[in-house]
Amino acid sequence: MAETKPTATKATSVQAKQDKNLISWLAPVVCIIAGYAIWRYMMGNADGFNEPDLNGGFWPSHKGPKDAFHRIYEGGIIVPLLIGMFLMVVVFSIERYLTIRRALGNGSIADFIRKIQFQLANKNVDAALAECDKQSGSVSNVMKAGLRRYKEMINEGGLSTEQKVAAIQKEVEEATALELPMLQKNLVFLSTITSVGTLIALLGTVMGMIRSFAALGEEGGGGAAADLAVGISEALYNTALGIGTSAIALILYNAFTTKIDSITHGIDESGFTLTQSFASQYK
Q1: Residue 89: inside a domain, yes or no?
Q2: Is there a domain that residue 225 lies in?
Q3: CA 137, 140, 145, 151 torsion: positive or negative?
Q4: Taking burial as the number of CB atoms within 10 A of a residue's CB, which of 7, 139, 157, 222 is the most buried?
Q5: pLDDT tens digits, residue range 44-72?
Q6: What is the domain count for the chain?
C-alpha cells in the first residue's frame, strides 16, 4: 500500500489585531449624558422662557418659549434621548470614517493590484512586498500576508503545487478573517439608530399628544383648544428629530457599507491574484 505523504503545515504569519472597543462602551453613555445637558441647560435655559420654573430640578416646567430652539425643550424627556442618538451618529460616523480611510490605504486599490500582478508576472516577490508597504490598508495587509507565504512556497520542496496554492489561499483567508471585523465594527450602532430612532420619536410624540388631550379634557373651552394646538406642535418636534436622525444614520450607513464592499472586493481579487499567479508560474 502506498504511503501518503503528510502535508506540511506552518503557523500563520498573520497576527491578531488588538480590539480596542472602549468607544463602543463609552460613546453611547457620554452621548446620552451630553444630550440631556443640551436639552436641560441649553434648550431649557430659563432665559429662553417667559415663565421659567426656577425650582424645577431635573425637569423644570418652563412655559412660554421665546423661540423655536427653546420650544423643542417642551417636547419632553424623550428629546435628550434623541439628541444623544444624533450625537452617537456623529461620533460613530467619524470613527468609521477614520477607520475605513486607513483601510483604503494610499491610492487606488485597482492600481495597487495591477502593480502586484505585474511584479508577480516578473517573479519579483520582493518588489511586490515593497508595493504593499507603500499602499498600506486592509487590502495590502492581506496581500502582504499572502505574499510572504507565496515566497515561502517557492522554495518549499516537500509539497505539490496544489498543496502550495492551498497554503497560500489559507493564509489569505486567515488575514481576511482578521481584517473584515475591524471594518464592520460599530456599524451596528448606525443600523440600530436607523430603525429605532423613528420609533422612539413616535413614542415621544404619543406621550406629548396624551398630555395635550389630557389638558384639553381638564380645562375645556377655546383656550384649551389653543393649548392643544401648541402641545401638538411641540410633540411633533420629537418626530422631526427622530426622522432626521434616522435619515442621516441611514445615509451614512449605506455610504460606509459601500466603501467596505469595495475593500472586500479588493481583498477577494488579491487572493485570486496570488493563487492564480503561483499556479501558473510554479507548476
Answers
A1: yes
A2: yes
A3: negative
A4: 139
A5: 998 998 888 888 788 888 888 888 888 88
A6: 1
